[in-house]
Amino acid sequence: MPKSKPKASSPTPVKQREIGEFATIRRRMSSLLYDALLLLGVLFVIFLLPLIMIGMLWGTLPPTWIQRAYFVTALGIYFIGYWHHFGQTLAMQTWKLKLTNKEGKPVSWQQATLRYVLAWFSLSFFGLGFFWALIDSERQFLHDRLTGCRILFIRRSQQNT
User: Fold this and answer.
1) Would you say 109 and 103 are in contact if contact means Cβ atoms under 8 Å apart?
2) By three-state DSSP, how is residue 37 classified?
3) Paired residues of 99 in beta bridges
4) CA 44 – CA 80 distance, rounded (Å)
5) In which band, very low, low, confident or very high, does the pLDDT at 9 lie, cut at 50, 70 and 90?
């Protein structure tokens, strides 16, 4: 009787419990609101104060497109930097949320940057990309789904991993 060849072992998918569970929409929206509050102070210092100083010194303001580009760039540095280096913004740390890729590993620069750009589109179209979470099977935002990112709730024992 011929022996059957053993099947090649397929890579075992990462179990969701090992890397955390999907964060609830409520927790993620609370984190977004908290990030917005934290950024008000930061934006005042890095955006509004320089504009006031430019206006006082030269009696004019930069064109609106430069102001908007500066604003979006400043926010991008904050979000992309925190997502890539720590997987969490300051608000996400408070709400015990972590951004990972599908395998539970840190997101790449490319993923973080694309997520940031797509989040602006999600917000621009009347928040449609955020409402997407209401119909998504894993309750992920549209920009997370498109970039292969996951926002997970991290239990206290998992926070340092």
Assistant:
1) no
2) helix
3) 151
4) 20
5) very low
The Cα–Cα gap between 24 and 66 comes to 37
Residue 149's beta-bridge partner residues? 101
Does residue 14 or residue 73 have the better pLDDT?
Answer: 73
Report which of 146, 148, 158, 56 is spatially closest to residue 99, judged by C-alpha positions. 148
Half-sphere CA count of 72, side-chain side, radius 13 A: 13
Q: Determine the pLDDT at residue 10.
A: 40
| Average pLDDT rounded to a whole number, residues 152-159 | 74
Q: What pLDDT is stored for residue 160 in this prediction?
A: 54
Contact 126, 132 (CB under 8 A): no
CB-based burial of residue 97 (10 Å sphere; 0-12 exposed, 13-18 middle, 19+ buried)? buried
Residue 98 is classified by DSSP as: E
**Confidence at residue 62, expressed as pLDDT on a 0 to 100 scale:** 86
Q: Which two tokens stand for residue 86?
A: 């720590």
Burial letters 54-75, b for 16+ CB under 10 A, else e: eeeeeeeeeeeeeeeeeeeeeb
The owner of tokens 């955006």 is 47
> For residue 140, what are its two tokens?
């992920």
Q: pLDDT digits over 105-116, tens only? A: 999 999 999 999
